[in-house]
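User: Please predict the structure of the protein below. I'd like the answer in structure-token form so I can feed it into my own downstream comparison script.

Assistant: Understood. Taking the following sequence of 379 residues as input:
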Amino acid sequence: MRKALVSFSRLPDFTLWNKLEGRRIPLSFDIEATARCNNNCRHCYINLPPDDKAALHDELTVDEISHLADQAVSLGSLWCLITGGEPLLREDFFDLYRLLKKKGLLVSVFTNACLITEKHIKLFRDYPPRCIEITVYGATEETYERVTRMPGSYAAFRRGLDQLLEGGINIDLKTMALRSNVHELPAIARFCREGTKNFFRFDPMLHLRYDGNAERNEEIRAERLSAEEILALDEADPKRSAALEKRCSTREIAIPSQELTDRLFQCTAGGDSFAVSYNGLFRLCPSLWQRDCLYDLRRGTLAEAWFDFVPRVLARTTANHEFLERCRICPLMNQCQWCPGHADLECGRMDEPCEYFCRVTHIRAETFGKRESSAPKEI
């Protein structure tokens, strides 16, 4: 891997951001530029074929995204994440990226880097991104392409990554821990830490498809690690272990409030960020795809969505006794991956317990909640 020719420091915390956080101002938003992708990853929740005509037809135009960004900035947005699918598949990506930068937004991009060209490097040098985030699916061609199921994708990824590093573009490298690549996780971690000084992270929690595709959901479930395997990865990373020890200590355990027990949304959804799908659907967070929680921005304004629609969604309650008597009163709920969006994807309704998330949360709490500070070997 080639080293970066220019060294970028991390952006400092924004004092303005800290002052405004918690005041229900949409400080940041995700824009899913497309649902199409050049790869076909086993675990991905949104990767339609690159030539999917229906998805291409439904994509927001540059003009529509420009109008949306103007509305977001007027409401106080500072930061935008361009994601997908693979956003670089859009032929008008250059226009899209440039217009968001010219509106004064801090812009990050999620990409697999396979489609990076010198033209992209020039764009990013002329209009520096806050960060380009790249997922590394394997340290070898065999493992990488076992995940992407796309011959030639590893070479394309390495070529794109080298171009970004040579161009001095600020990048973050990360990975998803899957059954198909977990055997290479230490090698992936070394690869990422050699490529950038920025913090390397991995995520073992896979989420199901936004479109409910049953066959693809079974593929995702097959890639999930067990709670015990996730715990082993946690224990092998000292920074991760330290963070989990803090979260699982008695000081971090929540005492459920009786007055909040029937409210469905106890997370930060709709607090200071939102997401917009490739076809213009406003969501309180990237994981929330439940039909009644979507607002069509092609038929209404962002202000209407933020000030009128969001409070109505957040006011929703539940009468599901299993959820109320199990999850709502659980002192580990603020540590759990459960949320209404994930519950809907997993179970088909927003007020159902999710057994997989529950087991991971409890095994972590049982292990790290009783532990004194330790220094496990780094993966």
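That's the full token string. The chain has two domains: 15-249, 319-369.
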